[in-house]
């Protein structure tokens, strides 16, 4: 049995997956890696972990790691895709892109999936509603043509 420190050192070469990679509510600029039709709204770490287990892939959950593009989005999963001889553990998953597609497809197939909106999203919506609308500044000065 490996200690958490040994697993952490070993997992440095593994692929990293953040939930925003497959979040259909985000744009590609915000971190989504797949097309919206292939993604799911608000994926959770535990859902991704269940999918990785069903694919037979070894993984480690790091709940406190922040997503680099948005520090409010916490959590990531490190996945071991390849063995020491560079062959994939699961022949259906050849690369990270197909892994993300497989995870999103499996999450969509979860019966009675509850879509939980993260608390930071609710707080941002409240702040948007309470913020007064800014008026567009217009200039009353007339433009003069020179010459």
TrEMBL record:
Compositionally biased tracts (Basic residues): 138-147
Pfam family, one: SRP19
GO biological process: SRP-dependent cotranslational protein targeting to membrane, signal sequence recognition
Domain of life of the source: Eukaryota
Entry GO CC: signal recognition particle, endoplasmic reticulum targeting
UniProt KW keywords: Cytoplasm, Ribonucleoprotein
Region (Disordered): 124-147
InterPro entries in the record: Signal_recog_particle_SRP19 (IPR002778)
One MF term in the entry's GO annotations: 7S RNA binding
Keyword Cytoplasm in annotation: yes
Compartment(s) of residence: Cytoplasm
Identification of the protein by name: Signal recognition particle 19 kDa protein
Organism: Paramecium octaurelia
